[in-house]
Amino acid sequence: MNWRLLAKRQWPLALSLAGIVIAETGSISTAAGWWQIPGVLVICAISVLAPRRPFDAALALTFAIVCTALYMRFLDVAFEPHFFVSGANISMTGAAMATIAILVRESSHLRAIAGTVLVVAAVIAAEVLGWPVVSAREYRNWQPDYTSYLFGACIMLVLALGTGLYFRARDNERASQLAASVAAAQNSERMALARELHDVVAHYVTAIVVHAQAGQLNREVDVLPSIAASGTEALTAMRRLVGTMRDGESAGPAASSSLMDDVRALAAESGLPVRLSFDLQDAVPQELARSVLRLVQESLTNTQKHAAAVSSVDVSLSSSDGVLHLAVLDDGVASGVPVGGSGGYGLVGMRERAELLGGTFSAGRREPTGWTVRADLPIS
Q1: Beta strand segments in the chain, E
Q2: From CA 269, how far away is CA 246, in angstroms rounded?
Q3: Contacts 24+ apart (CB under 8 A), 40-46
Q4: pLDDT (tens digit per residue) in 83-95
Q5: Nearest partner of 86 among 26, 127, 139, judged by Cα
Q6: Which GO molecular function annotation, any one, does this entry have (predicted)?
């Protein structure tokens, strides 16, 4: 724990102990009694610094309490004011309770038990060492009620242990919530990257495979420029994706100011017989336009991969009442084995993308042949 965090966390305890020590000085009746101040200050300082190394703080506190009680006994003076009957005063007892609470909160079970036993033993030793001085000067032959003393001491020990256990449970709960939040964020990032890889790179790789197959079937067709262009686009998409992972910037396609122009460019790149229809009554935000492009791109990629004998692909974009409507319809026949295989994630990714935007998505076969993709996305 760094010093700034320690100060932020421990200042209430430091102020409380300082206030108690200042109040205790008003009850000191002899010049020799002022010798309790150095030891008490050391004990309180150890308690405030305990979160840095709780078990070591418990050991140091034990040593400090015993040493302070010994030299006070050697000087034949008692702590003032006495807490309960004799020995440890209020600030020393409060510091011991705070240290036990911190120890239980942050240390392992074995260290918490051992440290608590040592601190309690040190406080008992201070009481025992201080009792002869107190009884001789203040109580003479009067014997204290040890039952009441033991009951009060147990209450204070239970309060210290209970406080430590409460904050330990809170820390564990907070750690579990943080771990769950981190796992959810990591899963969200993985899903976003998976969608980008599937929607962007797979689109261009599919185009490469389709053009290569066309070249194999018809040697006279020059497919190399198309393959080179698709390869270049795939590399650009990969660089954009890597840049996103490094810098946290958007990995979406670079949408221009005109969604219609971007859709026309996608249609031209696909090499499919695409017919476009636009009826956009509302301005489309850039982020929404980027997602629409992804949906159109993945729909055209699916047509390339899964359909044969495609004579037309109808892409329509319209808006009304603040909702953008997208429809992509083709009349192709299922080709059996898709180009390059299929991981089955295309429709899943499109559905997730639409739902993240608060919209709806549907896809299915159309009669007599073909496939339909529809998405309704809120504009605002």
Answers
A1: 274-279, 307-308, 313-320, 323-330, 333-334, 360-365, 371-378
A2: 29
A3: 40/68, 40/89, 40/91, 40/92, 42/68, 43/68, 43/91, 43/92, 43/95, 43/96, 44/14, 44/17, 44/18, 44/91, 44/95, 46/95, 46/99
A4: 666 567 888 889 9
A5: 127
A6: protein dimerization activity
Predicted local distance difference test score (pLDDT) of residue 252: 47
Phi-psi label, residue 76: left if phi above 0, alpha if psi -120 to 50, beta otherwise: left
Cβ neighbours, 10 Å, residue 369: 15
Distances (CA, A) of 144 to 22, 150, 316: 28, 11, 94
Three-class secondary structure assignment of 355-372: HHCCCEEEEEECCCCCEE
CB burial of 212-231 (b: ≥16 within 10 Å; e: otherwise) equals beebeeeeeeebeebbeebe
**Would you say residue 311 has pLDDT above 50?**
yes
Say if residue 198's pLDDT is above 60.
yes
Q: Is this prediction's pTM over 0.70?
A: no
Three-state DSSP state, 324: strand
3-state secondary structure of 235: helix
Kindly write down the DSSP assignment for every residue of 236-296, as one continuous string: HHHHHHHHHHHH----S----S-HHHHHHHHHHHHTS-EEEEEE--SPPPHHHHHHHHHHH
Q: What is the pLDDT of residues 230-276, one digit of tens each?
A: 777 777 767 766 665 665 544 444 455 688 988 998 888 888 899 99
